User: Fold this.
Amino acid sequence: TFLAPLSENEILGRQLRSIYNIAGFYVISGDADANQSTKDGLAKVTAELLSRVLTDGAIVSVTGGSTMASLSDYLKPAVKDLLFVPARGGLGESNHFQANSIASALGEATGGMHRLLHAPDYLSKSTLESLMHEPDVKEIIQLNQQSDFVIHGIGEPFTMASRRHSPEGEVEILKRNKAVTEAFGFYFDEHGNVVHRIKTVGIQMEDLAQKKQVFAVAGGTSKQEAIETYLKIAPKNTVLITDEAVGEYLMKNR
Ligand code: G3H
Assistant:
């Protein structure tokens, strides 16, 4: 039988998958910083990959961000009773980028359900402790622990700290410890050590390893180092969806 030859990006993705030893690695054309179509492409490929593994009644945790914002335009699974759960609290930015909005749009687009988390992503210690006893919040925490799949972004740490309106003291900690990457409120240095984790009722790093699959979705020149570093600590069940700006950088720096 005739098999179509692999595209350059497919070859690159396969090579990077074996270098980083994760479940999957997909590279799409372009630079997400420069083109919205590349950013949408990341969401589209993520939706296709997720559709292949979803089963009836699956629970999916989703963080927020501009990269995941258009996921619901593309997700058309052939399964039912999906439940989408926000994996983090609210950030002081556009409604479209909130985990809550993305979870509700996904629930609607797939004829499934969603839950909402009414809490900011960044919390003080005392607020976190009392919120964790609220039944609605408790349910979200449990659902994020039990979920089958996670879809999350990866960010440049100082951009994320400012999007979270983190206090100056925390930004200082990130500077002093040379944070280079961020995902779901965890900040890591270039060696992959956690240098800071925000107090959040959202998903925790420890929850990821037991998931059926974790989709990490991020691209763009400004995130090259952030993604390279995140790959050092990504659990083995991670599927990375990125763009050429990052894929080619990783290949050069390997
Ligand atoms: O944690 C990282 C952020 O979710 C990335 O957000 O897709 O808007 O860059 P972004």
Observations:
- The chain is about 40% helix and 15% strand.
- Residues 69 and 97 are 6 Å apart (CA to CA).
- Residues 36-53 form the longest helix (18 residues).
- The chain has a mean pLDDT of 95.
